[in-house]
Amino acid sequence: SSAQRKQRFADIQRRPPHACPEPEVTQLLLDMSIRWSSTYKKINDFPLSLAMADMSLKYVDTFVYELGLHQRTQEKCDQMIQMELTANECKCVGLFASLLAHADNAQQNFSSDASPSLHLALPALEALHKAWDSCSIQSKYMIFSTGLNAAVNKIVEYYGCTADLDAYTLAMLLDPSFKDAHFKKYWGAELHADANQHAEEIRCHLDMYGKDGDIASPKKKVSKISKLLRELSSDEGEDDEEDEIDNQSPWLKEFNLYLNSGHSCPPGMSIIQWWGINAQLYPVWASLAHDHLSIMTSSVSSERAFSYLNTITKCHNLLKGDIVEAIQVLCMLYNCDLMFREPGPSSASELGFEDSHEPGAEAGTQATENLDWILDLFDDSDEE
């Protein structure tokens, strides 16, 4: 049984002459057939730490050997003993863990249950693609070349799917600390211009402000003194420039003003808090932030949270997305101490407090209480 195997492995580590101190006694992780994140957790926490030390490797070999001795048939015994790790296999496990570490870093980078993380999705995919693509041509990873090539192609497929959605690029632009810096640095001038132009053509801008900005904003009135000053001006070109600026879409001015600003998100302040403070300064961008920052990057922020706690059983495939999201919300509320809080002071609560302390209300309450015993008497008489 699983309990007997755990006890056997702990006893092996306590045996003399190479007894392991009690605080350093490790234990086997529960073997579950789930995804790569749990595989990385298992081989990173247990086999690597044991295989890198000769004494720890002996613990594993002894454990596998004794399991083979307790098999019912000689054939099963031989099969079990052949599972002892060799030095070359330990090296392969270490290389495999280093490959999975890139995926784990990418997933943890854009996984969050308390703040927006959609703006980190594309950079994480690009970094993972670059890491695995470079590993696929290295000689030490040649044994994993087939799997690496398939993984790189899968990332390209996922990355291509993001081109059909505006949310990914908009979420990156909505990060006040970076804005379009990632596009400038990694995408090149042409793709950078395409990303900004595509953001300008988003349908919500046209729906809110009209095709040319004429619906939402009235025309600017020119005062009489301005007309007189124009007549005094001898430069006719200035009039044309001013007319061109006045006729420019008002949301486009704000659009470029935000991208060219030097604003950034202070340490300790979330993107949502920043947009809540600067919503009046950039109302168009704030409306986009309201619509896009709430989009989840992944339905499961981290599989590690479930696999490490052994909450996924043999029926793990029946764990639907809505259940996972509900569990995430509960975990976030619990970790952030947001559960079972009393409502804060508001105008409604103040009115209720005032009504409860009015003299007439108290008299009415006392009168009602005085009538309650009469009703009780009637109820008792009916029962008799």
From TrEMBL:
Residues 349-370 are annotated as: Disordered. This is HAT C-terminal dimerisation domain-containing protein. Its main location: nucleus. Coiled coil: none annotated. It is found in: Nucleus. It comes from Paxillus rubicundulus Ve08.2h10. Residues 259-329 form the HAT C-terminal dimerisation domain. The keyword Metal-binding applies. GO terms for cellular component: nucleus. The keyword Lipid biosynthesis does not apply. GO terms for molecular function: protein dimerization activity; zinc ion binding. Keywords: Metal-binding, Nucleus, Zinc, Zinc-finger.
